[in-house]
Amino acid sequence: MIHVHDAGGVWTLTLDRPDKANSLTALMLQDLCDAVDAACHAGARALVLTGRGKVFSAGADLDEARAGLATSGLWEALSGRVAAAPCLTIAALNGTLAGGAFGMALACDLRVAVPQAKFFYPVMKLGFLPQPSDPARLAALVGPARAKMILMAGARIDASEALSWGLVDRLAEPEALMQDATALTQNAAAASGEHVAAIKRMIP
To answer: Which residue ranges form the domains of the chain, and what is each CATH number?
Structure first.
């Protein structure tokens, strides 16, 4: 349910469970962790995370969430790996981003979304805490008040508002999403892994 593709040092990880809104199981989270590790070990210069269908991810699979996945350390493990990757990381958000799936997108360097995407993280309503690193990463992008709007007030925001807030960096129509995301990787793909990593280290 996770497809991995390496095209000249640009790795694409695709969530492929569109019939379940790309909701994530423990196995999928572990496969994503392993894929990010493999990309870094192979010297990837760029890593793109995307999904198949009209939803990037609805968060945790409901059955597994009830069984404890909602509070699993796998979410933080995945976002930590993405954040620590020494390459350019891009979330190509093919649709709505919800719940625990926020973590991997917030950990990316860039986020490109389709205009139809919605963004919400209903931890207050569901009675869970967000992943440990997510509030700080979210606040760094949108500011503390807007982070509280999403995490505490349960605000659902659309793509245009997400762009104006700084939650996403660019909008692209669905048919152009991967083309636009891939275009952003071209300079990194043409450089050495050491050069990519060195520049990334210079940016707080």
So the answer is: 2-202 (3.90.226.10)
